[in-house]
Give the backbone structure.
Amino acid sequence: MVTSQRIQQLKEKVALLPDSPGVYQFLGDDGKVIYVGKAKNLKRRVSSYFLARADHSPKVRVMVGKIADLRHTVVATESEALLLENNMIKSIQPRYNILLKDDKTYPWIVIRNEPFPRVLSTRRFLRDGSQYFGPYASVYIQKEILEILRGIYQLRTCSLNLSPETIAKGRYSVCLEYHIGNCKGPCVGRQSEEEYRESIGMVASLLKGDTRATRDYLQRLMNEAAAEMRFEDAGRYKKRLDLLAGYQSKSVVVSNTLGSMDVFSLIIDDGVAFCNFMRIVQGAVVNSFTVELKPGLEDEPRDVLSYAVGSIRDRLQGHLQREVLVPFLPAEELFEGTAFSVPQRGDKLRLLELSERNCRLYRLEKLKQIEIKDPARHVTRVMAALQKELHLNEPPHHIECFDNSNLQGTNPVASCVVFRDGKPSRKEYRHFNIKTVVGANDFASMEEVVTRRYSRLLEEGAELPQLIVVDGGKGQLRFAYETLKRLGLEQKIAIVGLAKRIEEVYFPHDPMPYYIDRNSEALKVLMHIRDEAHRFGITFHRQKRSLAFIKSELEQIPTLGARSVEKLLQKFRTISRIRKASADELAEVIGARRAAEVIRYFAAIDQVQDRALSSRQELPAVRPERKNE
């Protein structure tokens, strides 16, 4: 019974995993990691362990029986997941990863520290003054990059000693690589070291992820070749530019430029703090996890971060790296021998951003668990977030949103959707046919529907919303606000406008837009309301256009007036049903004489279509005459 409860709890955690690449860890009863694995899709991969499958090996079944908890780390690509898994396995050495415990090293690309430097593949990282780039997730990727480099730049591949003294002695002669255009012959003095070093500088920039120098270089060569009408060469440079456009060589998971350091990121939300920790050893992420803290009422973020760092340091048996990356500086005097820094650019900033991303995902998973177990608490939190972001006097439990729809001024309609506690209340949705506005005038249409909606609510004594959201910018908001003012409701109902372009929020009397954090739940609720109003309005507008088309066709029938058309539409709804209706069915609606006219009209159309079809079928096939040779 206890085991089944534990498996059920783990399945609930698995259901909250993201559909992203990453690395997952299974923990035993003692809190130690017993297995580390990688996944292209974390949710799908981890959930497979908890399915009753016959192809599971005995080892997998035993391991699943020992899982007490799980945690994960999200990365950008599957290749980064492979690298991170390798690093964690070597560092943690989990019990059930014994088959993956090897000393395999990943391939690097090295620019040798020598005259006319070679660009080579290697698996050995040495502190010899050479430049190392990588490592790469596979030899295939590394070789592909080397092929691109050698295709763009004419670099030597030989192992000759090209010091100035040996070249001056004239001992070497050009090889086949020179004759086929892959090398410019530095061994015989046909390429200067300065020119060669310029190419090596662009190679290094490319391997660091900066493609601008190489792109400009290829663009210049392509233009020169085209100007000289060497179109084959220009086409070759164009292909290299296309390869360059899709090139990505940099991985934040492993980088030889980073050295060894720890990374901490912190998010504080609604009285709860989340701190993510990453450990980097010689440029490789070897450990990552997130902890949850409950700060006191008056704790500043600096104090919370100091407490989190201290707690994680104790978990790591009192050891931190000498360099620690943080989003802001904690109380450093508590951690002697450790240098804290806030990165502003480059690889260290990307590493801090990766830590923050994992921290945000962990927070979202916790919030989803709360939503499942305690929906009322979730509603309270979302309403509080909306009240705070929009500067409201009370939580907006009742929200209404308006949207206009028309096609070049035809069939103008509007929609009103109602949300209660952040969720749609579809039975309260309303459509409006615009009655007083001619043409495409969204401002006047907004004025009309707001007037009609709240005049009626006031007459009926119905409940008023705490918030109105207008789909549009300053213009629509101004007309809607002036309408509320005429009705005496401007102090009773808050109103904002939400523009589609970059989700700008507008307030009355404020010409400047207000921007809510795109990851904020408050903005997501507003966008959901706005999109639902747009969907509801567009659906109604399409129905009206379709109805207008049917009316126009029925009005072509002689003796059939507007009243008869309305009766037919109310009864049959579509043209196809009217066509299939019998004379008696039509006569019940519009009388026998008009029913006969309808049947005669559609019969004539069918005859014309039949004649056109038969005439196409009777046309002889035209074939060219074959002449005798």
